[in-house]
Amino acid sequence: MAIILNKEKAIEMECGNNYLDVRVKRLGGAHEAVKNYTIIAAGLGFIPVPLVDISALTAIKLKLLHRLARDYGVPFYKNLASSLISTLLSSSVAISMVLPLASLLKSIPVVGQTAGVISTAIIGAASTYAVGKLFVGHFESGGTFLTFDAKKSRNHFEELYEEGKAFVSSQ
């Protein structure tokens, strides 16, 4: 009698093709959630009040991670998720420096408002996309919030951020 050490493998053996169908459906749902929250994040860039938009963008990222955690059966820890998001965002100069400046630009009539809205929408949406995609991959590999290493994920986050900017531009 073989001992099965991998819970996922045990479920797969028990359920057969059904298990793969569930995983494919879950992955499709996760990518759809990332897409939808990314679009919402782009809309939040249009909030006219400086710095309120940044708070709203942080909240939407937390909501996305809560949704993904629920879908993957991963315990959600709001404070830990918030801390991981902050660590990821602060690792990117484009996000940590430019996003607050773009938000503050909204206080300058007309030209500043326009530039601030566009910049905040793109940066906010691309960073939401990157956070979402990063955690989908992490959860797909069996990870949890407790096992996520934001420092080791920096380079991949930057790649996904660039991918997110392309995604937002194509919408």
Labels describing this entry:
single chain, 171 residues, elongated, disordered N terminus
Q: How would you describe this structure to a colleague?
A:
This protein has helices at 7-15, 17-44, 52-72, 78-90, 93-105, 111-140, 154-170. The chain is mostly helical and 171 residues long. Helix 6 (111-140) crosses helix 7 (154-170). The radius of gyration is 18 Å and the shape is elongated.
Task: Break the fold down into its secondary structure elements and pairings.
Layout: H1 7-15, H2 17-44, H3 52-72, H4 78-90, H5 93-105, H6 111-140, H7 154-170
Q: Can you summarize this structure?
A:
This protein has 171 residues and is an all-alpha fold. The protein contains 7 helices and no strands.
